[in-house]
Each structure stands twice: as structure tokens, then as C-alpha cells.
């Protein structure tokens, strides 16, 4: 993947925005279990009272609480409240909230921040528990005696006097012992449980003040629910936004990779096409890039999100209950063992899948392109068996991989359900011991599931990444292929008086990886205004020789000069811009006849296009087609005959009007009459150009000014038709096998 990472550079701003949104989404999702625990703990169990610092309390109750605080703590608590007397100027604004203010003074909490509330919360919480315990001991003589309250024993009971009035008369040391006795009772409770227990006497105090407890609880539930709804909305919006950005990044990356592959392939020479098959290049441009695109989406939405949610979930879960961390560790360890097993089994198959896709594309392409031959030889059953074999191999491998990966889903649910049961089992015991709140247990369970999902997302990435890495490597192999044919660093330019002279000087050539040359010491000159023909038996190297002129291959020895310049010293574009090349296999493109002819020169006028079609003897059949020049050409030119394709290819080269024409066996599909007419018209059109013709027909080149005879990659004859008939046995054998004695004369 790192080999194609540079193509992500244009999308780094989008990627950064997506990561920011992922943090926001993670924060919202991680906050939801916390607020759910607040609803259970505070809203349901505590009646909507969040802490032990009430918004108001009676003066008598404050006096009782401060008895069990240090002087500094009492001073700090009293500083956070203001005393409102019945009937004073401030009482009217509080009467509706606290009706008890009509009869007795009330302390009202000042506008203090949350940090101050958190600081005095444990101070007041313990004081509330002490006061509540003393209140409870008023009707329990044994408890009063255990706490060392004044008047314990006979004095305690239903008719006992107010203990707080007696406590105020006791020395500080005695009060400290009473508070210590209560502390021992609640020693096993943590700060959260003390706070939860303290909310009950706070609730009773609110009732004494005349506060609507039901409204207080409902208000808290609605406020918390509204916050949860807002967080859910934020999480949904950020998830959609992240999905949009990730899709945009992935689609843009895939588009850029396809464009880069196409540009790279356009620069390939014939040697590179020998290295990469057409079927493989199609697979790399489609399926491989699609795999990269899919993983790019997952990288943004999962690979970045999973660590955030995982780490955040662990931190928050441990904050809820540090003693149950081992449950999450056990679940994650079990999941990782399963993932590693799947990784070891499935990943080796991914490379095989891509090779099998190449094979399936190859078989399909061969069958579709050779359908006429298959039908002619009644080989449909054989081709069906070939395709079925390649298809079955791919199907069985993909089924194996998918079954292994799909097996992860039920195993994941088994882990999550087992995790939930274990958390409830252990958490229930802690709730019964008052070391954990029910809401915290529920939140811990939700965090644990989020953590498992995060690790599952990472594990799926570890499974998907290898396949994408294989695809990325295959695409990178194409992108990083250095063309064998390169432009010079300081290219030369053709002279203004450039002509179409082509000169071979001791040229030798061998294909990449071959053990011996296919062309040996080739030397000749083809000048403008004349036709140079190359003829020879099959496999003599004729087509290879002409492919060296436009640098489809580079010579391995010697030099080729065009217009006095070594072809390796000029730009390929400038070189090929001066040539009209008609390949051995005519190639037409989807479009119209006119668009195919203008492929050589987009600015060519209608008159020039029609003239080229007339010279190539294509006008007659074009006139019979619906639409004429606007007649449609199907993919590959399958709706025209072989001879018509050749004539259109020749017309395309004529539209260009270059100084050099190269016809690589371009007249083979023409009948003798059309061949003769075309050559006659072509002679007039190309009178000032160099024409190089590769052919197997002697009749096509009888009148050529120069004929080169090749045999086994060597020149075995050079001259005119008459000269070669006298001096070259190879040419004479070819000629006599095709023409009669009268025709040879």
C-alpha cells in the first residue's frame, strides 16, 4: 500500500477533516453510555438528585451538618451558601421554589462552578450520612448506644429528645468519635456510593422544603435525555459526513490510479506489453483498483475510528469499574486469537484469487475474441470446459475465503453475549456489596461492547488489507515499470528542411530476454519519393524491422536515422508525428468512419477525409453504408470486413499526410484489382514521401524502386524486381510461387 500512498496527497485535507469528524463521532458515542448511567443512577435511583450539595436546605439542617465538619470545611461550605430569612427582600424570589421559607430561614446555594461542587461534595456527603444515621438511631436504642450518642439506652426511643440539640453541647472530641463510628459503618463504600447514599437525605430535605420531587426527577430525566438525543444526532451527522468524505477520498484515489495506469500503459513500448498481458492489465485497472477503493473507505471509517473508540472505551470503562478490566482483556485476547487464525488461513488465498481472476479474464477474452473460430471448429464444449474450470477454481477459492471470514460474525456475537453475561455476573456481586452502581455496570457493559467492536473492526481491516495490499502491489508494478523506450534528456529537433529519408546502419536486434538476435547487421537507405519494399518468408523479421523505425522497440546494435537524426536522439512524439503507420492487424475504434479517419488529424477538412477515402478505395463501400462517413463503427470494427478495415486504416494514414508512410502487410486482405487501383492512386498521393511496404505479395511491389529481401533476419537481396529475379534465389522462389512467367516479365 505504501507504494501508491503518494496518490493520497491531494486528499490529505479531506483526510484530516475526516479524522477530526471521527474524534467528534467517537466522543459522542463514548458519552452516551455515561449519560445512560446517569439516568439509571441519578434519574431513577436518586430521584434526579445528582450530588450531596443541595441547591437549598434549612438553617437547622445546615447547623446539624456543620457539626460533623472541620472548621475549615464548615467555613468553606457556608461560604458557598447564603442565608435567606423569612420576610426579607430576597425571600420573595425563592418562596415559589421553597415554600418552607415562609416559616424558617433557608440556605440557598450561590452560583458556584462545578469544580467547587465536586470539591465540597464529599464533605457534605459524609455529613449527610452522619446526620441520617443519627436520625435513624433516634428510634433504635442499640444503634444509638453503638454510636455513643448522648442519652443512649433509656433515653433513646420514640419519645427521646432531639439528639442534635444535645450534640451541640458536646465537645469537638466527642463529636469526632461519633463521626468516626459512622465512618466505620460506611467504610466499605466508595466515593460514588457515599454520594448516592447521601442523595436520599438530600431528597428528604427537599421534601421538607416543599420542593416538587417528581418534577425534579422528571426535569433531570428530560434534560439528560435531550443531551443524549443531541449526542446521537451529532454522532449520526459526523458518521454521514465521514462516510461522504471517505467515499470521496476513495473514489478520487481510484480515479487517479486508473488515470495513472492508463497514462503509464500509453507510454509502454512493445516490450512492456510482452511483460503484462492485456487480460492482466484489465484486471489491474478494474478489480485491483476496486479492491484499493474499498479498503480506502474502510481505512477512513474503520481503521482510524477503531483505535479512537477502543482507547477511549478502555479509559471510560476502567473509570466506571477498575476491578473488572480483566473481563475486557479476556474478550479482546479471545477475539485476537480468532482473528490471527483467520489471518493465517485466509490471507494466502488472496494472492491466489487475483491470479485466478487474471486467468478467468484471459479465458473469457480469448473465447469472445475467437468466437468465430470456435464455432467453425465446433469447439464450444471445449471452451465451455476451459471457462468452467477457471470459473470453478475462482469460485471455490472465494467461497473458502468467504466462509472463513463469515464465520467471524457468529463467533463475535458469542464473545459479546458471553461478555455481557460475565459483566452482569461480576457486576451484580459488586452492586450487592455497594461497591458499584447499577448504572455504572450498564455503562461498563456498553463500553465493553464498543471496545470489542473496535477490535473487531481492526481485525477485519487486518484481513482485508492483505488483499488490498496484493492489489496495490500489482497496480504499483504497472505504475513503477520504467519504459524501455525513453526520450533523451536533451532531445534534438528535426531540421526545417527535413525530408523522409530513413537509413539503417548495421542494425541488429533481439527481443528482451531472448538468447540471440532476430535481425543481423541490417543496412539500407530509403529515400523520399520512392517506394522501398521488404519481402521474405514468414518469420524472416519483416514486421520487427519496420517497428524499429517509430521506436516501438530500440535497436540492440547499430543506428537508425530518420531525416539525418538518430531516432534515439529525438522525442518519440516528434518522431512518430512524421509517420503514417498502418499496422499488420488493422485497428479501428468505436465511433464513426469520419472519427476514425480524423484520428490521424482532428483538424482535417471533410474534403481531405473524402480524398483519403477515395485514394484508399474505401469511398465505394462507404457510400453504401447508412449515413456514409457518419456510419457507426462497432468495437474493434467488427461490423466491417477485413479488407474494409485495411482500406480505412490506409485512409487514416493518408489523412495525416506525413513524409514517411509505413505499410506493414496492409494490403493482404485486398483483392488484386483493388490492390492495383490503390497502389496506382497511392503512388500519386505519396510522390514526395518515403513509402515503406512490408508484404508477402510480389505483385504489390513489382514496381518498387527498391526491394529488400530478408531471410532469417539477414538481407539476402536488394534491388529492383528484375535485378532480384536474376541475382536472388530467395526472391525468385517467392516470385515464381505466386506469379506466372508472363506476370513475372
Distinctive features:
6-stranded mixed sheet, 745 residues, Rossmann fold, ABC transporter transmembrane region fold, 3 domains, single chain, alpha/beta, 15 strands, 61% helix
Q: Can you put this structure into words, describing what you see?
A:
- This protein is an alpha/beta fold.
- It contains 29 helices and 15 strands.
- It folds into three domains: 2-33 and 223-479, ABC transporter type 1, transmembrane domain (ABC transporter transmembrane region fold, Up-down Bundle); 46-211, no CATH class; 509-553 and 667-745, P-loop containing nucleotide triphosphate hydrolases (Rossmann fold).
- The strands form four sheets. A six-stranded mixed sheet has the order 9-12-13-6-14-15.
- Helix 1 (12-45) packs antiparallel against helix 18 (438-479), helix 14 (325-369) packs antiparallel against helix 16 (380-406) and helix 27 (721-727) crosses helix 28 (729-738).
- The longest helix has 54 residues, at 213-266.
- It starts with 11 loop residues before the first helix and ends with a helix.
- The model is unreliable at 152-160 (pLDDT under 50).
Amino acid at each position: 500500500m505504501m507504494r501508491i500512498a503518494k496518490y493520497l496527497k491531494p486528499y490529505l485535507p479531506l483526510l484530516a477533516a475526516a479524522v477530526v469528524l471521527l474524534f467528534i463521532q467517537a466522543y459522542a458515542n463514548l458519552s452516551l453510555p455515561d449519560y445512560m448511567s446517569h439516568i439509571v443512577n441519578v434519574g431513577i435511583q436518586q430521584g434526579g438528585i445528582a450530588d450531596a450539595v443541595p441547591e437549598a436546605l434549612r438553617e437547622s439542617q445546615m447547623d446539624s451538618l456543620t457539626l460533623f465538619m472541620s472548621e475549615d470545611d464548615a467555613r468553606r461550605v457556608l461560604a458557598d451558601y447564603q442565608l435567606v430569612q423569612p420576610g426579607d427582600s430576597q425571600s420573595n424570589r425563592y418562596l415559589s421554589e421553597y415554600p418552607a421559607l415562609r416559616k424558617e430561614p433557608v440556605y440557598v446555594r450561590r452560583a458556584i462552578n462545578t469544580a467547587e461542587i465536586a470539591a465540597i461534595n464529599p464533605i457534605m456527603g459524609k455529613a449527610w450520612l452522619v446526620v441520617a444515621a443519627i436520625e435513624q438511631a433516634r428510634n433504635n436504642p442499640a444503634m444509638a448506644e453503638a454510636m455513643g450518642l448522648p442519652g443512649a439506652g433509656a433515653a433513646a426511643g420514640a419519645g427521646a429528645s432531639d439528639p442534635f440539640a444535645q450534640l451541640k453541647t458536646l465537645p469537638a472530641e466527642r463529636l469526632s468519635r461519633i463521626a468516626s463510628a459512622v465512618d466505620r459503618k460506611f467504610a466499605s463504600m466508595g466515593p460514588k456510593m457515599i454520594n448516592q447514599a447521601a442523595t436520599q437525605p438530600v431528597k428528604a430535605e427537599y421534601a421538607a422544603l416543599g420542593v416538587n420531587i417528581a418534577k425534579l426527577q422528571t426535569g433531570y430525566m428530560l434534560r439528560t435525555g435531550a443531551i443524549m438525543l443531541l449526542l446521537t444526532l451529532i454522532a449520526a451527522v459526523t458518521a454521514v459526513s465521514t462516510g461522504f468524505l471517505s467515499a470521496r477520498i476513495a473514489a478520487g484515489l481510484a480515479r487517479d490510479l486508473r488515470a495513472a495506469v492508463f497514462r503509464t500503459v500509453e507510454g509502454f513500448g512493445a516490450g512492456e506489453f510482452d511483460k503484462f498481458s492485456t487480460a492482466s492489465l484489465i484486471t489491474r485497472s478494474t478489480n485491483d483498483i476496486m479492491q484499493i477503493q474499498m479498503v480506502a473507505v474502510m481505512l477512513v471509517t474503520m481503521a482510524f475510528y477503531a483505535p479512537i473508540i477502543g482507547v477511549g472505551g478502555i479509559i471510560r470503562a476502567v473509570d466506571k469499574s477498575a476491578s473488572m478490566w480483566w473481563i475486557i482483556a479476556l474478550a479482546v485476547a479471545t477475539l485476537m486469537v480468532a482473528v490471527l487464525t483467520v489471518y493465517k488461513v485466509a490471507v494466502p488465498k488472496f494472492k491466489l484469487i487475483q491470479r485466478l481472476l487474471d486467468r478467468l479474464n484471459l479465458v473469457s477474452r480469448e473465447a469472445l475474441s475467437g468466437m468465430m473460430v470456435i464455432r467453425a471448429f465446433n469447439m464450444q464444449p471445449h471452451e465451455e470446459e476451459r471457462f468452467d474450470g477457471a470459473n470453478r477454481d475462482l469460485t471455490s477459492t472465494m467461497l473458502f475465503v468467504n466462509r472463513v471470514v463469515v464465520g467471524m460474525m457468529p463467533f463475535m456475537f458469542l464473545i459479546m453475549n458471553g461478555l455481557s453475561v460475565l459483566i452482569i455476573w461480576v457486576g451484580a456481586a459488586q452492586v450487592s456489596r455497594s461497591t458499584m452502581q447499577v448504572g455504572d455496570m450498564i455503562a461498563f457493559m456498553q463500553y465493553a461492547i464498543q471496545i470489542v467492536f473496535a477490535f473487531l473492526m481492526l481485525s477485519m481491516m487486518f484481513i482485508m488489507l492483505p488483499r488490498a495490499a496484493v492489489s496495490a502491489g500489482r497496480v504499483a508494478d504497472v505504475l513503477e515499470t520504467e519504459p524501455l523506450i525513453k526520450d533523451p534528456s536533451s532531445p534534438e529537433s528535426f531540421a526545417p528542411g527535413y525530408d523522409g529519408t530513413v537509413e539503417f546502419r548495421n542494425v541488429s536486434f533481439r527481443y528482451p530476454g531472448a538468447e540471440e538476435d532476430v535481425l543481423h547487421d541490417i543496412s539500407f537507405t530509403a529515400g523520399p519519393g520512392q517506394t522501398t519494399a521488404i519481402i521474405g518468408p514468414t518469420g524472416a523479421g519483416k514486421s520487427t524491422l519496420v517497428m524499429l523505425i517509430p521506436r516501438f522497440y530500440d535497436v540492440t546494435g547499430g543506428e537508425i536515422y530518420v531525416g539525418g537524426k538518430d531516432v534515439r536522439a529525438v522525442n518519440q512524439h516528434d518522431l512518430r508525428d512524421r509517420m503514417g503507420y498502418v499496422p499488420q492487424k488493422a485497428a479501428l475504434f468505436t465511433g464513426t468512419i469520419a472519427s476514425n479517419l480524423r484520428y490521424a488529424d482532428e483538424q482535417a477538412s471533410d474534403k481531405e477525409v473524402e480524398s483519403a477515402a477515395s485514394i484508399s478505395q474505401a469511398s465505394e463501400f462507404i457510400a453504401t453504408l447508412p449515413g456514409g462517413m457518419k456510419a457507426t463503427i462497432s468495437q474493434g470494427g467488427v461490423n466491417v470486413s477485413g479488407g474494409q478495415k485495411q482500406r480505412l486504416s490506409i485512409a487514416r494514414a493518408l489523412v495525416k499526410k506525413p513524409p514517411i508512410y509505413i505499410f506493414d502487410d496492409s494490403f493482404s486482405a485486398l483483392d488484386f484489382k483493388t490492390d492495383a487501383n490503390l497502389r496506382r492512386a497511392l503512388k500519386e498521393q505519396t510522390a514526395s514521401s518515403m513509402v515503406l511496404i512490408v508484404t508477402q505479395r510480389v505483385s504489390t511491389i513489382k514496381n518498387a524502386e527498391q526491394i529488400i529481401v530478408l531471410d532469417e533476419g539477414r538481407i539476402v537481396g536488394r534491388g529492383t524486381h528484375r535485378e532480384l529475379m536474376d541475382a536472388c534465389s530467395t526472391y525468385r522462389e517467392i516470385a515464381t510461387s505466386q506469379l506466372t512467367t508472363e506476370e513475372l516479365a
